[in-house]
Design brief:
Blueprint: E1 6-11, E2 22-31, E3 34-45, H1 58-75, H2 80-85, H3 88-101, H4 105-113, H5 118-135, H6 147-161, H7 166-186, H8 210-213, H9 220-229, H10 235-249, H11 255-260, E4 262-265, E5 268-272, E6 285-289, H12 295-299, H13 314-317, H14 321-338, H15 348-360, H16 365-372, H17 380-385, H18 390-401
Antiparallel strand pairs: 1-2, 2-3, 4-5, 5-6
Helix pairs in contact: 4-5, 4-7, 5-7, 6-7, 10-14, 10-15, 15-16, 16-18
Length: 409
Amino acid sequence: MLNNNVSVSTLVRSATWKNDGTNFVRLRVSAKGVTRYIKTPIIVQRIDMGADGNIVVPALRRAAEDYLRKVEVKISKLTNAQLSQMNVDEAVAYIMQDEAANMDFIAFYREYIEDKRMHSKNTYNSALNAFISFLERDSLPISEIDTPLLRKWEAWLRKKYGDGARSVSAYFACISTVHAQARMEYNNEDTGEIVIPNPFKNYPVPRQRASAVGHRDLDVHIIQKMVDLRTELEGRERFGVDVFLISFALMGMNCPDLYTCEWDDGNVIRYNRTKTRDRRDDRAEMMVLVDPLVEGILSEYYSRDRDSNRVFDFDERYTSYEIMGENVNAGLKQFAKRINYPKAITLYCARHSWASIAYKTGVQRSVICDGLGHKNRENRICDIYIHREWKQVWEMNHKVLETLQWCDE
């Protein structure tokens, strides 16, 4: 207790234990009858704790006491009049001024991605590993992330993965997203208290160059070969080709979403894009009508589990979408070899091919963006107010599907 208004203490909260058996020592800050908790850099394990909830390991207990003492010294520099007027958020902001600026970005990053779903978690983990390799250390004060460091980071990525590689933009975006989360937690935009500056304000995330992804498009005649030959194929090759065609028919739906998508109403499939749902206000919701042209192929893989609302039986065939994706791409590799196609064919090619064919058929870019579930970069504010017209998107998809001759079995 520092005065009659503001008090601070340390504790390990029983509700915040992680799955790996670790927890943070937290600082409890109370003012005017309201309490807030601040994570300290001190990590404990269950074996470090006594039955009464106190730390029993001397070194860790001293570390917690030293941390508390440092905070108390900082607060003691305020007058009683200042302390008596503080609410709890003001007290926390004052305590965290120095802590936020010197927080370990790598540690914050690891905690941020812990609760992410597997699909995005894999990308974030890969980005972090690359960032640590670039830094050649596994800790970094967030204050050291500035424009010169970002410039070197981008150059390192381009040299390692290739000038037009998807990893350049994807990994850079992961670092940017986590940094934005830190700013959201520690800055107070309303009062103008900025303890973590935004280094990305004048150094935007690099965008993937269009020329770098062009090789992922397949010509219509290659996709037509898939349709024509699919019934002659067997095993993994047949499965890979069929899933490619299903993805193409559903406007380039990716593997994680094919694995988990559900029925909405009638012949409409509803899903939230795994890749972007965690960072979109609309949860990246997508609605896809099963076009009559492709009903035959899709129906071969419909779920037969009456207790499930899942569209497809992929979760009955494979224990995870990762394993499913590996089998799909292995099958497509066999097919590429069969037709002597000189480049790699992967499931992601279905998405690129769908977009390219839609554009060639005269569909407006804005409608294609809707079909892909992309936000329009030039009209982000408008997107907040405009309700997506799915009927227009479905009509566009029908136009794309009409470029192929779908065979009835």
